[in-house]
């Protein structure tokens, strides 16, 4: 006969993902290797563009990431496109990653009505789940609170989530910086409301929480217009955009100024494009892991040279993300596009070179 868990056991489970991820980041650094079997990469690596090719690609990426990165993130649509065979391949590579002891994130970007979205806890979080993962990515378009039941299921099973807040693509900016017209976050940006709702799940957790955010590294200085201060968020922050999409060390320093060990930078194509040789993939992983670690260490000590920033932090509300939405004018000209143009790095369009 099984006995019901005590309140202490429940508390421990609800902070388990954050604890395991922060331990892994302390050991291996703040890099997550993105496993995205793009068609072009499969072809370049000499694999068929099918579920078997995606599975072999993923196994190689796993071997390169093992012991060199804190986590791996699987891009669900790039398996899903092969239907049942793709799902079976993803189940197997997730199993392999678990056997290696790696922290696994499935990038499925699910979202929906509270009553229906909860069903996916059976797929990812519960004991015996076919796609058992340590965390998944979520979209909050139905309202961040619509995710509450699913988040509870994740936490009660020692798992976590990453909720899209400020995505790395430029098209997201006008929606995410829109000013809310009603409710608790009236007058604040959409992204701010999402981050604040996410943060509520982390309050009271010692160390890093288990409810994370997605904040693209590409957004650069535009972070200030959103009202979000990543330094005040106590869950993990998954940050895509470094490398292939154009973000550099300077962007990590700008966006994550003052953060302390909770930023997990996810990189896919900049590593995979060095394959298929595992030694080359491993070398690329190590080099990028070093760059990212260095940038985030510098971000930690980032000097507060910006007075407006300092006053925004001072007036931060208890949601632990500073809420200066007054400055959220939604002007879409800073960040990605300015930088891409200024130094010729890839911005939105060239980021699609290896898309799909
Ligand atoms: O959900 C994501 O992980 C995600 C959010 C976001 O805002 N931007 C973003 O690029 N991603 C994902 O992060 C990965 C980035 O891959 P690379 O640009 O190749 O490093 C891809 O799997 C994207 O789908």
Class per helix and strand makeup: alpha/beta
Q: Runs with pLDDT <50, length 5+?
A: 307-320, 323-352
Task: Name the average pLDDT.
Answer: 87
Instruction: Please compute the radius of gyration using only Cα atoms.
Output: 19 Å
CATH C-level class is: Alpha Beta
Number of strands: 8
Counted up, domains total: 1
Q: Please give the share of residues in helix.
A: 40-55%
Instruction: Examine the secondary-structure arrangement and name the CATH architecture.
Output: Alpha-Beta Barrel
**Main sheet attributes: strand count, strand direction, barrel closure:** 8 strands, parallel, barrel
Associated small molecules: orotidine-5'-monophosphate
CATH homology superfamily: Aldolase class I
β-sheet strand percentage: 5-15%
Count of DSSP helices?
17
Distance N to C terminus: 49 Å
Strand order of the largest sheet: 1-2-3-4-5-6-7-8
Description of the molecule:
The protein has helices at residues 7-14, 16-28, 39-44, 51-65, 77-80, 84-99, 114-117, 120-124, 148-156, 173-176, 190-200, 223-226, 249-255, 269-272, 278-300, 307-314, 336-343; strands spanning 31-35, 71-75, 103-110, 135-138, 160-166, 211-215, 237-239, 263-267. It is α/β, with parallel strands linked by helices and 356 residues long. The chain has a single domain, classed as Alpha-Beta Barrel (TIM Barrel). Strands 1-2-3-4-5-6-7-8 form an eight-stranded parallel β-barrel, surrounded by six helices. It is globular. It starts with 6 loop residues before the first helix and ends in a 13-residue tail after the last helix. 52% of the residues are buried. The model is unreliable at 307-320 and 323-352 (pLDDT under 50). Orotidine-5'-monophosphate (OMP) binds at residues 34, 36, 75, 107, 109, 137, 167-168, 214, 216, 240-241, 243-245, 266-270.
């Amino acid at each position: 006969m099984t006995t019901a868990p005590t309140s202490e056991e429940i508390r421990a489970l609800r902070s388990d993902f954050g604890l395991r991820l922060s331990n892994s980041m302390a050991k291996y650094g703040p890099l997550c290797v993105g496993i995205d079997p793009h068609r072009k990469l499969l072809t370049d690596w000499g694999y068929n563009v099918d579920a078997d090719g995606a599975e072999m690609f993923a196994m190689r990426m796993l071997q390169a990431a093992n012991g060199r990165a804190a986590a791996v993130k699987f891009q669900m649509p790039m398996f899903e496109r092969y239907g049942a065979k793709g799902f079976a391949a993803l189940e197997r590579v997730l199993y392999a990653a678990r056997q290696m002891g790696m922290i696994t994130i499935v990038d499925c970007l699910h979202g929906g009505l509270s009553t229906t979205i909860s069903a996916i806890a059976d797929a990812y979080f519960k004991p015996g789940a076919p796609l058992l993962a340590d965390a998944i990515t979520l979209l909050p378009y139905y309202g961040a609170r619509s995710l509450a039941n699913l988040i509870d299921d994740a936490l009660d099973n020692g798992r976590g989530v990453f909720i899209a807040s400020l995505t790395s693509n430029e098209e997201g900016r006008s929606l995410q910086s829109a000013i809310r017209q009603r409710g608790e976050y009236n007058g604040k940006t959409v992204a701010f409301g999402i981050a604040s709702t996410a943060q509520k799940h982390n309050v009271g957790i010692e160390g890093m929480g288990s409810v994370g955010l997605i904040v693209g590294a590409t957004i650069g200085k535009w972070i200030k217009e959103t009202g979000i201060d990543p330094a005040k968020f106590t869950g993990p922050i998954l940050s895509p955009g470094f490398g292939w999409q154009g973000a550099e060390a300077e962007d990590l320093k700008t966006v994550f100024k003052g953060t302390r060990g909770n930023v997990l930078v996810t990189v896919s194509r900049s590593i995979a494009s060095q394959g298929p040789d595992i030694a080359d993939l491993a070398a690329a992983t190590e080099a990028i892991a070093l760059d990212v670690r260095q940038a985030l260490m510098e971000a930690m000590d980032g000097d507060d040279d910006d007075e407006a920033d300092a006053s925004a932090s001072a007036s931060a509300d208890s949601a632990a993300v500073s809420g200066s939405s007054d400055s959220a004018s939604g002007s879409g000209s800073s960040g990605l596009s300015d930088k891409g143009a200024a130094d010729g790095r890839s911005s939105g369009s060239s980021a699609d070179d290896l898309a799909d």
